[in-house]
């Protein structure tokens, strides 16, 4: 978001179908639309409750631990990483399970508040959220203003309608109608691609920028765009849950780690979060959660604070 973000999840407003229906489905007259369904949603399988690690809990600032919880900002429109469950209220997903386990390792509970993606980092800086966990790709621009603890790796993938009827070449999107989610790294990607199109005398990409990734996926299946750019787990999940309406073309590119976001300069808190993630990697909880959502190919071997990217 505003920097790379990613995919897989289960729904986003009451099983992807409800989420997308709520955004308004419908084609442009050029063909039938096929909205994503909840098929393949992760089962609510058991993620082991984590025991408090006293040495890590001691590093959490009293301003955070005083109320017994950690408040996370997340954008629940990015299945399977973060999405709204079938009841239309509960936030679920890989990031939610991982964040919940991090909080438990620190002797606290996790509270996830739904937010538009571009508002999460400002919300952390303003004290509304204590952590941000929403498929944030770590990049130099973000590290100038916040600290980040790595926990996953994802690249950008190109999603198209099944069978690629528009003959989309992922290396040349000039003149094509392409959708991205606002605030993601894919927005910057499209801008760079457009500069190249212009320099080569080709038509500009027709960009559709929407607030929710679920809306971008719907725009693709409803024939309002011919391709979308999103994180690899997101496109992979769309392929699995749109009843054959979406496929991925080309190879993922620009892989980068995801990071849990903290206010700049909270050294002890960052060490506590990093230690909690590393502890999960070592005791097996980390892979259990990734396997639950089918995204274990994005696993990384260790968690780092502000890794070089």
TrEMBL record:
Keyword Signal annotated: yes
SMART domains assigned to the protein according to its UniProt record, in alphabetical order: PBPb (SM00062)
InterPro entries named in the record: Solute-binding_3/MltF_N
Swiss-Prot/TrEMBL keywords: Signal
Coiled coil: none
Signal peptide bounds: 1-21
The keyword Signal belongs to this UniProt entry's keyword annotation: yes
Domain Solute-binding protein family 3/N-terminal: 69-297
Transmembrane segments: none
Superkingdom assignment: Bacteria
Pfam family, one: SBP_bac_3
Record-given protein name: ABC transporter substrate-binding protein
């Amino acid at each position: 978001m505003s920097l790379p973000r990613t995919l897989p999840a289960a729904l986003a407003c009451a099983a992807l179908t409800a989420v997308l229906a709520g955004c308004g489905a419908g084609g442009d007259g050029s063909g039938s639309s096929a909205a994503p369904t909840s098929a393949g949603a992760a089962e609510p399988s058991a993620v082991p409750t984590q025991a408090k690690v006293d040495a890590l809990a001691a590093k959490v600032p009293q301003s955070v631990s005083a109320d017994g919880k950690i408040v996370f900002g997340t954008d629940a429109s990015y299945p399977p990483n973060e999405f709204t469950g079938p009841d239309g209220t509960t936030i679920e997903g890989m990031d939610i399970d991982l964040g919940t386990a991090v909080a438990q390792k620190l002797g606290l509970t996790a509270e996830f508040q739904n937010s538009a993606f571009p508002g999460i980092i400002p919300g952390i800086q303003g004290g509304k959220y204590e952590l941000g966990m929403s498929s944030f790709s770590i990049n130099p621009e973000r590290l100038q203003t916040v600290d980040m603890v790595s926990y996953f790796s994802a690249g950008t993938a190109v999603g198209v309608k099944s069978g690629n009827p528009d003959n989309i070449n992922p290396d040349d999107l000039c003149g094509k109608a392409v959708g991205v989610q606002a605030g993601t790294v894919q927005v910057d990607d499209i801008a760079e691609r457009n500069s190249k199109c212009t320099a080569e005398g080709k038509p500009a990409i027709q960009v559709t920028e929407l607030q929710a990734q679920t809306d971008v996926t719907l725009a693709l299946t409803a024939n309002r765009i011919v391709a979308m750019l999103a994180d690899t787990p997101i496109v992979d999940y769309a392929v699995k849950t749109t009843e054959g309406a979406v496929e991925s073309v080309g190879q993922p590119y620009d892989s980068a780690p995801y990071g849990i976001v903290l206010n700049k300069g909270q050294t002890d808190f960052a060490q506590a979060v990093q230690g909690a993630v590393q502890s999960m990697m070592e005791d097996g909880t980390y892979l259990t959660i990734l396997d639950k959502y089918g995204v274990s190919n994005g696993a990384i071997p260790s968690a780092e604070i502000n890794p070089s990217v």
